[in-house]
């Protein structure tokens, strides 16, 4: 893992930019469907918005995408919290890297940009993130365990019907226990869902605030 970690004082990388997913200029609006702003929300929707806003200060654009169905908004936040709270042996870096790989392959700039910021905050090397954002399929970290995680995320995202028991066994050879594998599988599946919600409803903006990227999880 040392090959992708930088210390907080690593001045050598201080001017190395992270590759950001490109935002199409045609998509300046938040979404292609009507959404309900926080100021107009009531009932379950307001409760959901307020829950996320307690930590972040406001509901996210993604959260507002489901606002015409308030119970969906609440359940999505519950699911988000549950997914991120899995007590597996995966490190935060490994979990977020799997999510980034999935979001890059699904061409979802909104999710990818936030995950890049999360990984930067966790200490990931920015040159390595550049490679992941360009093509996760050819990315090698130098850490066999992380590379196995990335390979699984790539295969499950691009060719889910081709995933086999051998792919799971390969994860075990790199020290992943069954709960770790379940967590990894769930992270990839969750972000495939999230990516399709964002892409399918026109959420093409990028997240440029580390605060939004790291504090969107309700507590």
What are the SSEs and their pairings?
Blueprint: H1 43-56, H2 61-65, H3 70-84, H4 92-105, H5 109-121, H6 126-134, H7 144-158, H8 165-173, H9 178-200, H10 210-215
Count the beta strands: 0
The CATH H-level homologous superfamily of the domain at 91-200: AhpD-like
Helix content: 55-70%
State the separation between the terminal residues, measured CA to CA: 29 Å
Question: Please, what is the average pLDDT?
Answer: 88
Instruction: Give the CA-based shape.
Output: globular
- Radius of gyration (Å): 18 Å
**Multimerization state:** single chain
CATH class of the domain at 91-200: Mainly Alpha
DSSP helix count? 10
Strand coverage percent: under 5%
Structural class, from secondary structure content? mainly alpha
Biggest beta sheet summary: none
Low-confidence runs: 1-28
- How are helices and strands ordered from N to C? HHHHHHHHHH
CATH architecture of the domain at 91-200: Up-down Bundle
Which terms would index this structure?
219 residues, mainly alpha, AhpD-like
How would you portray this structure in words?
The two termini are 29 Å apart. This protein has a domain at 91-200: AhpD-like (Up-down Bundle). The chain contains ten helices and no strands. It has helices at residues 43-56, 61-65, 70-84, 92-105, 109-121, 126-134, 144-158, 165-173, 178-200, 210-215. Residues 1-28 have low confidence and may be disordered. It has 219 residues and is an all-alpha fold.
């Amino acid at each position: 893992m040392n090959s992708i970690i930088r210390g907080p004082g690593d001045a050598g990388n201080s001017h190395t930019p992270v590759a950001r997913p490109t935002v199409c200029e045609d998509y300046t609006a938040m979404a292609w469907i009507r959404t309900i702003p926080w100021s107009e929300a009531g009932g379950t929707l307001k409760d959901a918005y307020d829950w996320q806003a307690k930590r972040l200060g406001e509901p996210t654009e993604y959260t507002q995408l489901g606002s015409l169905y308030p119970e969906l908004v609440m359940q999505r936040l519950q699911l988000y919290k549950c997914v991120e709270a899995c007590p597996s042996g995966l490190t935060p870096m490994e979990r977020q890297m799997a999510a980034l790989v999935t979001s890059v392959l699904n061409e979802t700039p909104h999710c990818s940009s936030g995950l890049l910021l999360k990984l930067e905050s966790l200490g990931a090397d920015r040159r390595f993130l550049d490679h992941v954002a360009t093509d996760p399929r050819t990315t090698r970290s130098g850490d066999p365990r992380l590379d196995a995680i990335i390979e699984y995320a790539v295969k499950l995202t691009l060719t889910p019907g081709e995933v086999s028991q051998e792919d799971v066994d390969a994860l075990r050879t790199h020290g992943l226990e069954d709960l770790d594998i379940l967590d990894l599988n769930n992270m990839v599946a969750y972000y495939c869902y999230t990516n399709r919600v964002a892409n399918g409803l026109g959420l093409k903006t990028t997240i440029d605030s580390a605060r939004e990227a790291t504090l969107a999880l309700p507590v």
